Amino acid sequence: MSEWQAIFDGAPVTTFDTGAAIFRREDPVRSMYLVRSGSVALERPLADGTALALSVARSGMALAEASLFADTYHCDAVVRETAEVSILPKAVFHATLRDRPEIALGLIEAYAHTVQAQRTRIEILRMRKVSSRLDAWLDLNGPPPEGHWKSVAEVIGVSPPALYRELAKRRS
């Protein structure tokens, strides 16, 4: 566990079922969240009724960290896979960062890695071919664990069938 995650030690843990909303766009930001298990997507509802997935938080990841200094959320947090989430009042989170600079530095380091990962993802998404996107992702990450190719498709911005076609070509 990273040092910044210790902020959540003793915080209540709530279980959310798949499809549940932890918060909605324009709700006031009152809490900070740490996903303990499962996955939660930050989604922005679009005019056509679909949702744009901005990111997916999994075990050990903060949820909606960009809202740390916001008054309201800019998206919905929707549970994709039953999740256990630690919830801490925003004021307690801020106070801990003020009083424990080593934890604040750990959080800055974690967010810096997140920014690097997002920049890499943007560059992968700019590639036109599925094969190029997959090559870039594999060069950086290696093959995923068994049964996780669907999440690779999501990260590189292609449909699972398009990814599976590419993988089939490579097996031939």
TrEMBL record:
Cite the GO molecular-function annotations of the record: actin binding; DNA-binding transcription factor activity
SUPFAM superfamilies, per this entry?
Answer: cAMP-binding domain-like (SSF51206)
Q: Which InterPro entries match?
A: cNMP-bd_dom (IPR000595), cNMP-bd_dom_sf (IPR018490), Env_Response_Regulators (IPR050397), Profilin_CS (IPR027310), RmlC-like_jellyroll (IPR014710)
Q: GO cellular-component terms in the record?
A: cytosol
Would you say which domain of life the source belongs to?
Bacteria
Q: Which residues form the Cyclic nucleotide-binding domain?
A: 1-114
What Gene3D superfamilies does the record point to?
A: Jelly Rolls
Q: Report what the protein is called.
A: Cyclic nucleotide-binding domain-containing protein
The organism encoding this protein is Primorskyibacter flagellatus
